[in-house]
Write a structure and sequence with these properties.
heterodimer; A: about 120 residues; alpha+beta; 6-stranded antiparallel sheet; 3-stranded antiparallel sheet; 4 helices; globular; B: about 325 residues; Alpha-Beta Plaits; 3 domains
């Protein structure tokens, strides 16, 4: 299920609609990656640019880059992922969040319906 | 075969501690029959299938005349004059074509064998099958599984005990359901790759290519150099005598980011590029990254310190003997 209260990027990140937004990857992306074993995220204070790479997620099978969904400054990263990166698989919209960012600009984001259409097999 | 049915790490552990169920029906199966079948395969392949007794199998390779590997194969001798050659899916057409090309002058018939292939792998495989305890490793015989007539082989690609079941397509779903119902965990391609990597088994397209010979991959033992003549003999005899510029080695690292295919392997002193990683992953069983890489023999001794350039980060690596994982004796 794609949560209706979140916003989505075309790179399969989600973010909350807050001044300090919480960012994660979607269940669709987590399923495609497989079991996550390591997450590399930017330090607090790092400035992110929407669409630019800001980290990486490693699964047993592959490594994928994390793209920032918004411009802003990282204020917090999810420390729980250090010990249990599998939270990204088990709870991608909850305990598996990646980081919090003080948003200065959000370019194009999708609502849940538009994201659902993006990942539907027909698209 | 999907990458995973659920969690690839859970599927990996299921094979190491219980049993996993793999649908390998994509693999290539070629039957070679006829009065000259054994003699022909001795010529076409690097091993000596004529020495396999009926009911047994051998791991072997098909090489180019240059000595480069075209595929690695398992050859089963079903009867005196009937062999089953199992090839990687992507290479099945090449193997079929090359066998045909080499068969001039031999009284053999080469046909694509149809059917399905299901593997049950892991320490509980025999218990789940309720059969096969009597079969030696790399043995094959007729059996009945879930009421279907099959060929049951004690072979696999996981580093565990296990079986491969050759059946008619019509029986495959019944066999799958019966084994899953008896407790085998459906397992996908992602864990198949980490399982074979832990077991130090090469994968065609990564460790083995037409640019590598069996000697590069540390598999010179599969080449029967004393045969009178065989495809690739001149080149392989030369490589055996002269040695190779690079050899396949095992690497372990302590970082959390695993070396991956294509990552450069460097001399930690000079920074010189020595070779590159062919496969790498975080090992679910061992808990740290493992990788295979081609490096010059002088850098391939266990204990040697090397560096892998993991997407710009230099990770310290240590050469270890393959395999990374060996199952405990039963």
């Amino acid at each position: 299920m794609i949560p209706l209260n979140l916003r989505y990027s075309r790179d399969h990140e989600w973010l909350t609609d807050d001044e300090v937004a919480t960012v994660g990857i979607t269940a669709f992306a987590a399923d495609a990656l497989g079991d996550v074993v390591f997450v590399d995220l930017p330090e607090p204070g790092t400035i992110t640019t929407a669409g630019a790479v800001c980290g990486e997620i490693e699964s047993t099978k592959s490594v994928s880059e994390v793209y920032a969904p918004a411009d802003g400054e990282i204020v917090e990263i999810n420390q729980a992922l250090t010990d249990d990166p599998g939270l990204i698989n088990s709870d991608p919209y909850g305990a598996g969040w990646l980081y919090r960012v003080r948003v200065t600009r959000t370019p194009e984001v999708l609502d849940a319906a538009a994201y659902a259409a993006l990942i539907s097999p027909e698209s | 075969m999907p990458l995973r049915y659920g969690s690839d790490i859970a599927e990996h552990h299921a094979v190491r501690t219980g049993a996993g169920l793999f649908d390998l029906s994509h693999m290539g199966r070629i039957e070679v029959t006829g009065p000259n079948a054994a003699e022909f395969l001795d010529y076409a392949l690097v091993g000596r299938p004529s020495r396999i007794v009926p009911g047994r199998a051998r791991y072997t390779m098909l090489c180019h005349t240059t000595g480069g590997v075209l595929d690695d194969l398992v050859v089963y001798r079903l009867t005196e004059q009937r062999f089953l050659v199992v090839a990687n899916a992507a290479n099945a057409m090449v193997v079929r074509a090359m066998l045909g090309e080499h068969s001039n002058g031999y009284a053999v018939t080469i046909t694509d064998a149809g059917g399905s292939l299901i593997a049950v792998q892991g320490p509980r495989a025999a218990a789940i099958l309720g059969d096969g305890d009597d079969l030696p490793y790399y043995g094959i015989r007729a059996a009945r599984v879930a009421g279907a007539d099959v060929l049951l082989a004690r072979t696999g690609y996981t580093g565990e005990d296990g079986f491969e079941i050759y059946s008619a397509d019509a029986d495959a779903a019944t066999i799958w359901s019966a084994l899953a119902g008896a407790g085998a965990t459906p397992a996908g391609l992602a864990c198949r790759d980490t399982l074979r990597l832990e077991a130090g088994m090469p994968l065609y397209g990564q460790e083995l290519t037409v640019r590598t010979t069996p000697f590069h991959a540390g598999l010179g033992r599969v080449v029967a150099l004393d045969k009178a003549d065989f495809v690739g003999a001149d080149a392989l005899r030369r490589v055996a005598a002269e040695g190779t510029a690079t050899v396949l080695t095992g690497l372990i690292t302590n970082g959390r980011r695993a070396p991956r295919r294509g990552h450069p392997v460097l001399d930690p002193v000079s920074g010189e590029r020595l070779g590159e990683v062919t496969s790498g992953a975080p090992s679910p069983t061992l808990g740290h990254p493992i990788a295979m890489a081609y490096v010059p023999p002088v850098f391939a001794k266990p204990g040697t310190r090397l560096v892998v350039d993991v997407r710009g980060t230099h990770e310290d690596a240590e050469v270890v003997a393959l395999p990374f994982y060996r199952r405990s004796p039963q």
